[in-house]
Amino acid sequence: MPRFCFDEVTGVTRRAALRTAGNGFGLLALGSLFGPPAGAADKPASPLAPKPPHFKPRAKRVIFLFMHGGPSQVDTFDPKPLLTKYHGQPFPGAKPRVQFAVTGNLLKSPWEFHPGGKSGIQVSDLFPEVRKNADDLCVIRSVHADNSAHGGALLQLHTGSDTLVRPSMGSWVTYGLGSENQNLPGFVTVCPNLGHGGVSNWSSSFLPAAYQGTPLGYAGLPAKAVKFADIAARHGPAQRGQLDLIAAMNRDHLAANPADAALEGRIAAMELAFRMQSDAPKVMDLTTESKETLALYGVGTDPTDDFGRQCLLARRFAEAGVRFIQVSHSYKWDQHGDLKKDHAKNAREVDRPIAALLTDLKRRGLLDDTLVWWGGEFGRTPTAQGGDGRDHNPHAFTMWFAGGGTKAGTVYGKTDDFGYFGVENKVHMHDLHATILAALGLDHEKLTYKYAGRDFRLTDVKGRVVTEVLA
C-alpha cells in the first residue's frame, strides 16, 4: 500500500490536506483574540466556558489556604492531653518503619487548647481568631498521605501523585466545570512557592493548557507588589501592532506544524491575557475596599499585611467568578527546631486574615457556595527533634473545611492518644480529593481524560467520597 494517498484531480496529498485542515484549530483561537466577526454564531465555545456538573453541587468554587511546610496537628486542631502527661518519655508504640529523620521522646504542646463556639471544637491558642469561627469549621483529624518529603508530599497534595507529573487539582476542577468569568483564569494561585515541585503544583500537565493555573507573584515577593497593569488603556495602538505581528508569525508556524499543542496553548494564554486586561486590574485593586474591611484582614498592619492581602484577593477573585483560588503561606511551617517561636510567628501572620476571610465570605453570602480548605502537605511528629522541634509526619494530620456544603461545627476522624497515626475514620489524600470534587458536583470516577492510551483522573484508581463531612 502506498505511504501517501494522492488525489489525481486536485493534486493534493492526504498529508497536505490534513495539514491544511489542522491550521484551523489554532487560528480559531486567534480569531477571537484579534476580533471575530460580530454575530459569528458558529464560533466554538471557549475551553473555560461554564460546564454542567455531574450532579447538583454544594459549592461553586474553592479557596485553598495552603500552609506550606506542614503545621503540627497536635499544636493546632488535635489536642492530646496524654502528650502533656507523658512529656519526655519514649513513644509507647512502634514508630513508622520509614522515617524522614530520627526523633526522640514525646514532646508536649506549648499551647493550651480551648473550645470555640457552640460546637465546642477544640482549637489551640495559636489560632484564637479562627477559634471564634469554630462553628463554621469541619475539622478532619485523620488525614494521611504517602510521602514524608516536601517535594513528593506537595505533588500528592496538589496532583494526587507523589512521583509522577500529573494535572493539578485546580486544573481538574477547571477542566470539569470551566470558569464563571471568561475574562479571568479559572484557576489562580497567589504567591506560590517555586520549589518542592514548583510549577508542577499548578500545571495542567497533559490536560489542555487552558486549564493550567495562573500564578500571581511568587513566594518571597510581597503580595502588595503583585500587580496587573492595565496596558491596553495606555498602549492600545502599540499593543495592536505587536499582536498583529505575533498573529502573522503564528499563522506561518501553524502552517508548517498543524499539530503543535504547545503553540495552541500559547495562543489560548495570549487570548486570556488580552481579556484579563479589562478585569484583572480591577479585581486586584484593593484601594476600592473600605477601611473596615482592610482592617478586618489586617492589611497595612504587621505581621498580617502580606497574608491578609492574599486572603482579600482570594475573596475578590471568588466574587469575580474564578473557580479555584489558592493562597500560600510559603514555606514557613517546617519546624524541625524552634517550634514554639516559629509556629507562634507563623500563626500570628495568618490567624487574623483566615478568620477575616471566613467572616467576610459569610456576611457577603459567599460562604454557602464557596468551599474554604485549610491545610499543609503533612503534619508533624508528637516526638521531639532537635530539642524544640518536630519531624515530618504524613501518617496523621489535620485539615479543615468551611462552607461549601460541608458539615459546620463538626470533627471527623481520630488519631491515637499521641497524634502519630490515624485510628478512626482515616481519610487518605485520594479520599480528600474525591470529597472536594463531590462538593463541586463532580464524580471523581467520571472526571477523566484519555492520555497515553488510558483514562486518567485526579484520584487515579482509588479514593472514596467522605459523605460524612458533607451536609
Could you walk me through the main structural features you see in this protein, from its secondary elements to its overall organization?
This protein is an alpha/beta fold. It has one domain: Alkaline Phosphatase, subunit A (3-Layer(aba) Sandwich), CATH 3.40.720.10. It has eleven helices and 17 strands. The chain is globular. The chain starts with 13 loop residues before the first helix and ends in a 15-residue tail after the last strand.
Q: What is the β-strand count?
A: 17
SSE string, helices as H and strands as E: HEHEEHEHHEEHHHHEHEEEEEEEEHEE
Report low-confidence residues grouped into runs of 5 or more.
Answer: 1-10, 17-44
Large-scale geometry: globular
The largest sheet, given as strand count, sense and whether it forms a barrel, is: 9 strands, mixed
Derived from helix and strand composition plus strand pairing, the structural class reads: alpha/beta
- State the distance separating the first and last CA atoms: 63 Å
Tell me the name of the CATH homologous superfamily: Alkaline Phosphatase, subunit A
- The top level CATH class name: Alpha Beta
The mean pLDDT is 89
> Fraction of residues in helices?
25-40%
Count of spatially separate domains:
1
- In CATH terms, what is the fold-level topology? Alkaline Phosphatase, subunit A
CATH architecture: 3-Layer(aba) Sandwich
Radius of gyration: 24 Å
- Count of alpha/pi helices: 11
Strand content: 15-25%
